[in-house]
Amino acid sequence: MENLTNEALEAPGYFKNFPALNCIDLSSPDIHNSVSLLKQACLDSGFFYVINHGISQEFMDEVFNQSKSFFDLPVSEKMKVLRNKKHRGYTPLFNELLDPVNQIHDILPGWRETMEKYHREALEVAKAISRIIALALNLEVDFFDRQEMLGKPIANLRLLHYEGRVSDPMKGIYGAGAHSDFGLITLLATDDVFGLQICKDKDAKPQKWEFVAPLKGAFIVNLGDMLERWSNCIFRSTLHRVVGNGQERYSIAYFVEPNHDCLVECLPPCQSQENPPKFPPIKCETYMLQRYKETHAVLESYEK
Ligand code: OGA
Ligand code: NI
């Protein structure tokens, strides 16, 4: 994949090169099956689909339309909600918007209400997923879905717009470069344009990148680095990136972290005499700040 050329990207069949991810049906009464599918996915790639999550297609369409209306605004309007130092607002360089932002109400009436409703509904989906994750880790079902964890979560909505440039991995040009997410889990909603790729083995040479196919009505869910650490690296936080094929693409990422005061300490079922904890306990907030500092050093210099 590192030898990807534009011709290869455009060749018929190229976008059919994708693995089937496990699909978790949140409406299924067979919880054992859901736990087993999710566990397999978390051990293997840390990526899975979630369907029948309770957010209506109609509302998802509305959220995407509102996102488009924002990116359709003239640059001068978008600049009014420029990203501030708390990582909220508009980042022209990356064409993304982090919610909530205050000034937007004057520009797009109703926009903020839609995004706040999405925020609330996505959090309920995240909680439902966290209960299956807890069971898959042999924890109490509400381990993550407790007041001191997801009861007071830190969740960020990020609206993304990829402007239809063709990526050139040979030259290091991507829609989004290779990264893993920092937090607990990420719920990604995408339109039907291909672009997201995952690399299951970051140490493989050459790295093998596989597409994750968009699935209508589904969330693509992935585990973040914090959960990898919490689970003593039993569960995977996988490297992913976005490559552009020339088509415009919209996606919405919802990053979920537990309360900043909670302690991320190797989970008891994930350690044994043969497999002792790989990391010391750390406060969620300390961990996240560390990760932001490392990764956003460039952004912070840009914001000054
Ligand atoms: C992210 C991300 C993927 C996408 O925002 O962290 O991986 O498809 N987005 O936009
Ligand atoms: Ni990501």
Order of the strands making up the biggest sheet = 1-2-10-7-12-5-4-3
What is the count of structural domains? 1
Helical content class = 25-40%
What is the tally of beta strands? 14
From the 3D coordinates, which CATH architecture would you assign? Sandwich
The profile of the biggest β sheet is: 8 strands, mixed
How does the helix and strand content classify structurally?
alpha+beta
Indicate the CATH class.
Mainly Beta
Q: How is the quaternary structure best described? A: single chain
Globally, the shape reads: globular
* Mean pLDDT score: 88
Order of helices and strands: HEHEHHEEHHHEEEEEEHEEEEHH
Radius of gyration: 19 Å
In the predicted model, the low-confidence regions spanning at least 5 consecutive residues are 1-14
CATH topology heading: Jelly Rolls
Question: CATH homologous superfamily - what is it?
Answer: B-lactam Antibiotic, Isopenicillin N Synthase, Chain
Distance between the termini: 37 Å
Chemical compounds bound to the protein: N-oxalylglycine, nickel (II) ion
Structure description:
By secondary structure, the protein is an alpha+beta fold. The chain has one domain (6-303): Jelly Rolls, CATH 2.60.120. Helices cover 33% and strands 21% of the residues. It has ten helices and 14 strands. It has helices spanning 6-10, 31-44, 57-72, 75-79, 104-107, 111-136, 147-151, 225-230, 284-295, 297-303; strands spanning 23-25, 47-51, 89-91, 96-99, 154-163, 176-179, 185-190, 196-199, 210-211, 219-223, 239-242, 248-257, 263-264, 282-283. Strands 1-2-10-7-12-5-4-3 form an eight-stranded mixed β-sheet. A four-stranded antiparallel β-sheet has the order 6-11-8-9, with no helix packed on it. Helix 2 (31-44) packs across helix 6, helix 3 (57-72) packs across helix 6 and helix 9 packs across helix 10 (297-303). The radius of gyration is 19 Å and the shape is globular. The two termini are 37 Å apart. The model is unreliable at 1-14 (pLDDT under 50). It binds N-oxalylglycine (OGA) and nickel (II) ion (NI).
